[in-house]
Amino acid sequence: METPKPHDPRLQGVTPGEVKSELEKILSETPSDLAAESELLARAHEVLHSALQ
C-alpha cells in the first residue's frame, strides 16, 4: 500500500482572479425573489468553499 502524501498548498487549483471573476458573475445577477437570492448566495458559497479546498 502506498503512503498518502499531503497536498502541496503552493499548487493552486484555481487562481484568486478566477474566484473573483466567478463571484462577480454570480453576484451581478439580480434575483427575482428570496428563493432565487438564496440560490445565488449558495452558489457563491460553493465557489469560495471549493477554492479553499
What's the structural blueprint in terms of helices and strands?
Layout: H1 16-27, H2 34-52
Helix pairs in contact: 1-2
Description:
The chain has 53 residues and is mostly helical. The chain has a domain at 16-52. The protein is built from two helices and no strands. It has helices spanning 16-27, 34-52. Helix 1 runs antiparallel to helix 2. The radius of gyration is 16 Å and the shape is elongated.
Summarize the structure.
The chain has helices at residues 16-27, 34-52. With 53 residues, the chain is an all-alpha fold. The protein has a domain at 16-52.
How many DSSP helices?
2
Report the biggest beta sheet as strand number plus sense, adding barrel if it closes.
none
Oligomer: single chain
Alpha-beta classification: mainly alpha
Element pattern in H and E: HH
Poorly predicted sequence stretches spanning 5 or more consecutive residues? none
Fraction of residues in β-strands = under 5%
Q: Kindly report the average pLDDT value.
A: 89
Terminal residue distance: 25 Å
β-strand number: 0
Gyration radius, to the nearest Å?
16 Å
* Overall form: elongated
Helix percentage range: 55-70%
Task: Kindly list the characteristics that best describe this protein.
single chain, 53 residues, mainly alpha, elongated
